[in-house]
## 1
Amino acid sequence: MQNTRKNHKRFFVPRKFFKFSTESQAALEFLSTYAWAFIVIAVTISSLYYFGVFDFGKYLPQTCIFPSQFKCLDFSLKPTEARIKLVNNIGEDVHVTSLQITNDATPPISCTAPATFDWAHETTQDIIFTSCSGGGYIPDVRVELKVSMSYYAVNTPSHPVHVISGKINAKVTSS
Amino acid sequence: MQKSHPAKAQSSLEYLLVVALTFAIIIPTSYLFYNYSKESSQQITDAQVTKLGRSIVDTAETIFYSGQGSKSTLELNMPDNIASAEIIDGKELVFNLTTTFGVSEIVFFSSVNMTTGSNCNANVCSLPQLASSGLKKVKIEAITKDSVSIDVI
């Protein structure tokens, strides 16, 4: 008897605790419901992001931007080549010394640049980068390419080399 | 009379749906307009530089053919993103324009010999005052019978 009473004393739980216990259980369940809701929302948003739903850039128009002195008239991005049609509006005959194409991908796109050439003023020139690979240059994917061109004016005595930069933001065609 | 719980829940849900729909429209639209305006601003800067560069060279040619001692002052509003301005070989007026996709040199060719009052090194004369944005007064003067001086005052 003595022993039983002792045990009872040992496991005696005050009323106050019962009250708190019930409240904390309710609170925990409430938070658990919210946690589930957060998990479901996070998974849904992650899935949508993974499938490119939030990539709003694809809704922008395809553009080819160069300085007006070498205006971009047309362009096309084929699976292994990038073509740009520029016009020489600078008012002088120039000699193009180098052309480069790159992008922000790691590793960046790699293409074979055209050879150097002379370019008379007020004429157009098709610039063709061949054997393009890497840098996410894949058919049906939208890419942003940075093109730079170095040239000098033929009639300037010391032939100082100038650089212009342009940008193409477009989708690579599948054929 | 107090509103019942389902009615409150419905109004809350409707409110949340309206807010969600508003966000779903505003966020993509803002992104698209921001990108579009960014590209437009680069084209505007290019157009501004082209206009003022052409204006400097045209005035230099006019002043040169007006004879020694002739001068004129241009008030030019320089845009942002111009890193430097220089005259090379007395023939090329070059503006270095910084864009999001690299540096572009906008070059203007003159049929008359251009120079600056100072800051000349070999065949390159720089115009550092033109490399900042804002309103600039550019004095163009036929200092000799062979050349026209371009200075920011």
## 2
Amino acid sequence: MLTKPRLARAADDAALVRVIEHGISGTEMPGAHSMSERDIRQTAAYVRTLGRVAIKPVPGNAARGAELYRTKGGCAGCHDAGFTAPALQGVGSRRSAVYLREALLTPESAVPDGYLLVTAVPRSGGNVTGVRVNEDSFSIQVRDASGKVHSYWKSELAELRKQRGVSPMPSYRGTFSEDELTDVVAYLASLKDSE
Amino acid sequence: MRLLLFLTPVLLAQVNVPYERILNADAEPGSWLTYSRNYSGQRYSPLDQIHTGNVSKLRVAWMNQANETETVQASPIVADGVMFITKPPNIVEALDAKTGRVLWTYRREIGNDFRGCCGRVNRGVAILGDTVYYGSIDAHLVALNANTGAVRWDVVMADPKVGFSGTGAPLVVKDKVIAGIAGGEFGVRGFIDAYDAKTGKRAWRFYTIPDKGEPGAETWAGESYKTGAATTWVTGVYDPETDTLLWGTGNPGPDWNGDGRKGDNLYSSSLVALDPSTGKLKWHFQYTPHDVNDWDSTQTPILADGVVGGQKRKLVVLANRNGFYYSIDRVSGKFVAGRPFVKQTWASGLDESGRPMRLPNTTPTEAGVLLYPSLGGGSNWYASTFSPQTGLYYVNAKEEGAYYIKGAAEFKAGSFFNGGGQRPNKAEQPWGAVRALDVVTGEMKWEYRLHVPSHAGLMTTAGGLVFGSNGTSFFALDASKGDLLWRFEAGGGIVANPITYKVDGKQYVAISARHVLLVFGVE
């Protein structure tokens, strides 16, 4: 769902057609290579109509949500450092309130690309759990919660556990009351891209 | 499994380089924390695991490719196991220094208004704390989170539409990021900037051409100072002992037609000594007064100490593009000694103050006048090096003459403002050499001849080595005698400076060839 009428990457219709056709490199959005030129033009026109729908205000108290984000939720520790969790600047421009609520309740439903949780156990002892930064057949780089990157040759590892479908983020079901959840969603929805 | 570990993170990032680490770079020889490794500009590494006895066993450990065929010219930074490089067209990348695997990539769009004289080149980043600083080809200064690549701030240095671009690596001094600017072929007015490292707010700007009424303004005829160039496109050095920033300046504009800018044209083709806190000029030394040969003096100068007349002197030395080697007292800015380090035919020598005595009939003409060196110079932006171990200064020297041509020069913002050019001298084949010079006098001790001139930098190490390049070859010489000890065919032109570093106890040497970064280690 589009949450704003002005598109940062598509100032005009020609740019919007290009975005739909080629996707946005470096993001999750793929190019629509199977669509015909006509399909793409029609999709672009549809996207423009979405921007004309009045934006429904998100309920809740954003200021109180911001406070919960920093205190009870402990969200800032990971998201503001940006090491093991994505930075949330502008998340309100990209994600709907419904999505944000779901992500808070069932984080595993919303693990973004590039945040696979892994545990590396070197033969020399100890182990490191963190987010996979990069991996190939021979080596893996893991960023722990402190931001430190650990680089291992796979031949040095006794074990490498990949926790697909697991999010390092805890569910806030039961942690936040229904009102608190609404406030945190209101806060996140208020984080718009600067224009 | 839920990770409680993630709920109480310790904010101890992977990469963190406070100023004190850069200031004391020699205490951690395994790192390469600033453009020339430390502030001296010597590009000498105390690492000695790779040495004259085992350099023949050097093999490729890993490579990193750019997706563009343009040449990678970056001198990497290595800190805390992470290497930071820049790539064409406008990319900063963090690599795991051990495996070469990518940790993050920052890509920046280039607007249609980008000009640039000489390709989308970049010579690297600077680091302070957990922030990496990048002077982009579209003349922004960008601060990136060193651990994630996220943008912390992004400020406009100058307008790319009129020809400004960022190509040099910034230099961090204390809490400031010092950055030069390119665009000397577009009639811009050059400057050196300092920005607050935390906020990106500009702390000072030193214009390399004085404004009307300021000292030095009288060295520019009429309004010519407004389009006098004197850009600052290669990283300077910092002398902590005297708290002085030393930075080279480029050619005056228009390059080959000086008719409209009569006078010495301060501070073009000079070395300027600035207070890094305020940007105030302490002294200057002009290598080529009223330059009409495009002999930028932007090469990184080198701080070295030498014995002159039985006394130890603090020197700043440089083998200049104009063909002369200079040693200057870095406290007073006074000339100490100098002599040609390549064939030169434009001056009868240097006078007592170090000013070249230009010979008659050596200014460019419409028909062309044959002079040595060519406009590429006796050397150029690529690094020279000084080894405290041998006491020698090493330069990549170019032996080439050319016909200098004077043409019309009409200023139009954003267009080339050159006033001529050069025509090759087909009667002779240009060649090059790595030359070892006495650091005080510039007297040559040995040379290693190169079939064609090289456009790449040099590095010395405590392993008794000089690393250099020629065309597509990367090689190591014995620093004391100049014997070739090892070479590698890289298959792509090398136009970059080498570096060396250590990670997990192993020493590596890195150089870029065309669009590939190559990293070598001993098996």
## 3
Amino acid sequence: MKFNKEIKNELIELLEKKNIGLEGNILKIIDTSDDPNFAKYVEDCKEKDKETRKKRLDITKQVQEKNKELLEVNAENERIMEELQSTLKEVEDAKITFEVQNRELVAWKQDNERISLELQQEMAKSELARIGAEEAKTAAVNDLDVLQKKKQTELIGNIVKIALGVIISIGIITTFMYILALLINKDTQMIGSTWSNMLGILLTNAFSIIGTIMGVKYSGKEDKE
Amino acid sequence: MIDSLMLVDDENLFHLVFEDACSLLDISLSLKSLNSSDEAAKLFEKWFKGDLQDKPECVFVDLNIIGSSFDGIELIRKVNFEYGNNVVIGIISSSNEPEEQAKAVQAGAQFWIIKSDDIEPRLEQFKEDYEGYKNRTAPFKVYK
């Protein structure tokens, strides 16, 4: 690209007076081979452009670096947030699990209390049944005792009756034989002594029996007491 | 010096860095910066159909272009296998994965420039190798 003399002078003047010069890649395609002054102008503009670009490049790089750091910090923040959310979720899950376990424990406790109450009621019933059984046992033992006494008394009564029957019968028979012997005038010496001996023995035995009976009865009363 | 460059990158700040670095290093006269691979693909489709206005000589493509339908490697594949294969094209990315680089080679990438704070030395090396890429004699190279 070539400029005419007028434009070249205007461009040079603009740079000198107002510090405004050409910039960018256009400087690379300007032909300055025939004009050393304009060649110097283009070189000055190139140098100025280079300085500006260097500055901008440095700043852009710094911004880029900051941007990169910010992105890393952001990524780290996101990671921490994810971790926090994950931890929060774990805590919430643990809380839910704890609540469920707590509910189960409360239900279990209520069951236990109910079972304990039922057990106490059953124990009370059992105690009552035991007392009833003991009372029944005592009553049965008493009944048995009474029955035994009754049987004993009956037996004693029977023995007494039989014994008295035997004694009375023997007494009657012996008396009858003694009376008969008297009536038919037979010798009564032997039967008389026999009758008196017999009567004595019978009376002795009768008193002995009565004594024995009374003793047994008295002994039974003591046992009962 | 390269007549015209194209940069496809989703990071606007890098557009400024790349433009200033290229200007300071006298790499190119003009630079067109795009934010998405879809936009770039549309332009290449237009140029492939015959309208060659504004067509760049060389294209730098970012590997992962956020907000685009496809990544940089797919864009290179499209440019090379669907839109004529007649530009110097390669990846400019902060990634240095050999697997991705192998994929880029298969798609027809000619170079891989590692994007970092100090990009100027790599661009300077690239400038020196550019003629080899232009006449397709230089092998695939990673600028670390």
## 4
Amino acid sequence: MSGVITVVLLGKLADLAGAPSLQLPAPLDWAGLQAALPEALAGALGDPRNRVALNGALLADKAALHAGEGDEIALLPPVSGG
Amino acid sequence: MPPRIQMRDIRLLDQPFLPAMLIGPFTQANPGLGGVCTFVGEVRHDAKEQGSVEALELTHYEPLTLPGMHALADRAFERFDLMGLLMVHRTGMMHPGQPIVCVSAAALHRRDALGAVDFCMDHLKSAAWFWKREKRAKENGESKWHWIEPREQDAADLARWQS
């Protein structure tokens, strides 16, 4: 049995997903993540202002994502201002 | 000159706090200071026309938010001649009038204390990993949650420090 990857959704991306986190089957690359997410969320990922972190480290290049069993991906929309 | 001992207290709190309970001990922990500057931010009520704010919820992402605040404190210590720095930020559900952030800086001279607090606040508001949504009352008496989007003013506030 293959393991899972946790996808944490922050801010309004959690609303698009309908949940604060999702579990997806490992492994996932960038194309695989987009294909596995609900359509509204996958569309939002293309926005360059939305950042991606893998295990707490921001990715300089989202397309370079490679996540395996037990990893945590965070999808981070722009932070709120004052 | 021997390196001066620097005192720092950087925290996220998920419960209401009393700023005086932080500022007193912080000041005590920095004997010999020449000045201490403190900023406390509270949840605004805002004007009735926009629909009064009933609640504010702050979400953070544990692996990034607190490390980001420590990195901000590092930069404040590099930029200003500080003895101590206190940076406390709320997360979770808050109501108008409740403190949301408290930053206090102790230094030998006032400009370092004043500048460090201003610097930390601009970065906490615009660049720290927090997502805010507020619950506003509508005219029909219902309430609705809205995510707070970045503002142009936030970018301008940050640009002040990029020299």
